[in-house]
Amino acid sequence: MTDLVRLERHGDVGVIVIDHPPVNALSIAVREGVIAAVGLLAADPGLVAGVLSCAGRTFVAGADIREFNAPRAGAASTNDVCRALDHCPKPVVAALFGTTLGGGLEVAMACHGRVITPGGVVGLPEVKLGLLPGAGGTQRLPRLAGAAAALEMITSGRHVPAAEALALGVVDEIGTDVLALAVERARAMARSGALPRARDRAVPDFDRAAFETAVQAVQRRARGAQAPVVAAEAVGWALDLAFDDALAREGAAFQSLRAGAQSRALRHLFMAERLAAKSPVAAEPWPVAQTGVVGGGTMGAGIAVALADAGFAVTLVEVSEPAVAAARGRIEAVYTRQVASGRLSGTEQQARLARIGYATELAALAGADLVIEAIIEDLAAKQDVFRALSAVTRRDAILASNTSYLDIDVLADAVDNPERVLGLHFFSPAHVMRLLEIVRPRRVSDAVLATALAVGRRLRKQPVIAGVCDGFIGNRMLAKWRQICDFALEDGALPHEVDAALEGFGMAMGPYAVADMAGLDIGWAMRKRRAPERDPASRYVPIADWLCEAGRFGQKTGLGWYRHEGGKREIDQAVTALVEQASAARGIVRRAVPAARIEARVLAAMVNEGAKILAEGVALRPSDIDVVLVHGYGYPAWRGGPMQAGDEAGLAGILATMREIHAECGVGWEPAALLERMVAEGRDFASLNV
Asked: Given this model, what pLDDT does residue 492 score?
């Protein structure tokens, strides 16, 4: 055994205790300790059975992720732990509580029985790290829970509550004193001679056609992510292969995924999320109980819901009683939908609604600890609100703006003590989206910044600190993303071709599909580049000019013609035909733009802008940019974000592409000095993630 694992005697039952705070991760030392403890249990004639338990606040919550980056040859694996439990001649029962995840659940399934506390959860979230369960999880879970349930749990990576785990057969019993329950169950199994092993079970009867249909659905949803697809295949091995043969395949698949770019990217993102949430200041956060929201539109209502969901008391202020009624209706509609879908009970709905009060005067916020302004994106209007709030709130009340672009320092100028002002940029819908940009103006106090981070965590958001600039991190990156896509239209691409290229890259939606959904007008969104004169002999047609031409698709139609006025395929074909006909009539040719070119130029533009953001101090580290783009803008998580994707693609190639773009597009597209320096020094952006 090691210092992290001990064997205690509870009469004739040996209790193996893992004591590796904070989450009892399955590090090498823990794995070796458990194997040694199982050996002692098996050899001790005074012990008839065993229990696998943990000290602290949770059972094993997973592996030590840092080991995936540099696995140690010859070290005991989680599979070795499971093998030791499988072959133990005495029954061992796992006493589960807290979060039993990943390797923790795999080890528990290798025990001969499992009990859990009512509040415990289990899960195999490896796909979220670009992996599959590599210690028998894809083989034991189908034997315990059935093929369909195992497929869903493993490919989604979701946490399963205790009651559902019991119904599925993942655990055997629920009890509050889980250690005592496990000891008694183990002792009873010893008396009866029972030694059930999950590996020896047959997969329960299942519908093969329904299973294959579910696998195909996983493949469609993966959108380029490898791990869910491979994990689904591995669950299928449990249905057709002997356990040991399937286990060997599972292990090989795990190692292949672990060494791949997608898992590297997702592991990077996992660490980036935790790094972004850490406070860069030593100050303690202030207590926050009473909160206020100014503005009850879509964003304000969503913010009020998010605050109420987190247990805060909320006062929402609108300009009139009709506006209050409209805000109340938006909020009640959110909770009504949640009750209808089964995500919320009627009792909890009423409790959350009761936390939200309404008013038409800012004076109602006199006792607030935190006020979030969420009115229209107009600087003068926001300044008026902040002046009024300065007059009615306590001097230690934090005043925050939900602005997407505006200068927080200018808003702070309207307040008598500007050190209490900062930005809290929520993303729509505010009660759903995880990202929270915390915008740090130059005068904000450390305590206010620390409080904002604490509030973000309580809201269960992913906080990222950003500096003040036009658009902060996310919208500033988005502007370059969208602009380089618009240039592709000028080069000859059609909107649906640009969307297809970026969706093929893994984006949740292409930029024009997003714009259409948001109701933006294509003429407003288009930014014509100032480029050197082109060779007139090329005789290409700038498609952007055709799409922006007034009257061609109806005055200010936006992109309604593109997505909404017919089926997507039919509209795409109609637009293509129209452009080709117009081009032919003028004797010019539409120049095709390869998807690879679109992808490469979008990535280069984003990495280059990210480098400028870093050099200006708007982002603390490259990984913060990645977190913002993944959680707020649909960037594929399995690419890790644009800065990680740039590292994977190679910064020398990124720089070369930027030099081409600069030569073509001129001012505003200069390669970032930081990018040039990184390439010259042979470094990558990951080296700056500290």
From this structure: 83
